[in-house]
Amino acid sequence: MKAFTPPPIRPGIHPRSGLGNRVDQGMRRSVPCLMVFFVTLVLSAPLNLPGQVELMPAIVMALVFLWSVFMPAVMPSLAVFALGLWADILSFGPVGVLLLMMLIVHGVALSGRYTLARTNFFMLWLVFGVVMAGVTALQWVLCSALALHVVEFLPFVFETVLSFGSFPVLYAGFVWTYRFVVNNADHS
C-alpha cells in the first residue's frame, strides 16, 4: 500500500533534482561569498578612489552582517574566516585585524539574528552602527598596538561614519540580491 503524502503547501512547478538544479542551487548559495570576494578584490586594486581604504571594510562588514543575520547558511563561519584571510592579504594592513573584525561582526549577527531578522530597518541600521563603532575602535587599538605607537584616530572615525552612511544603499542591494537568491521574487 502506498503511503499518503500531503499536497505541497505551494503547488506549482518544481524543478527536477538533476545536475543542473544542483549547480543552480550551488551558485545561488555561493553568491554572498562571491560578492565579498569580488568587493575585496576590486577595492584592493589601485583605483585612486577617495576613501578607498576605508570603503573596503565598510562594505565587507555590512555584507557579512546582513547575510549572517538573514541567511547564515550561505555565510558560514568557515567562509567568513577564509574571506577574512583573503581580505587581510589584499588590504596590506596588519595581519589578522580585518579577519578578527569580520569574525566579530559575524558572531554578533549570528547571536542576535532571531531578534534582528524581525526588527525594522532603522533598528537594524542602529545595531550595525553600534557594532561597527565597536569593531572599528578595536581595529584602532590593535593597529596602535601592532605599530607600537598611537595611530591617528580620524581614519577610523571616517571608516565608521562611511560604513554607517553606506548601510542603506548596501541594504537595498542586499534585499534585491536576497529576493533573487532565495527565489521569492515575482519575475513578471
What does this structure look like?
By secondary structure, the chain is mainly alpha-helical. It is built from seven helices and no strands. The termini are far apart. Residues 184-188 have low confidence and may be disordered.
Percent strand? under 5%
Helicity level? over 70%
Order of helices and strands: HHHHHHH
Structural class: mainly alpha
What is the element layout, followed by pairings?
Blueprint: H1 19-44, H2 52-70, H3 77-91, H4 97-111, H5 113-116, H6 121-147, H7 154-182
In short, what is this structure?
The protein has 7 helices and no strands.
Keywords:
188 residues; mainly alpha; 0% strand; elongated
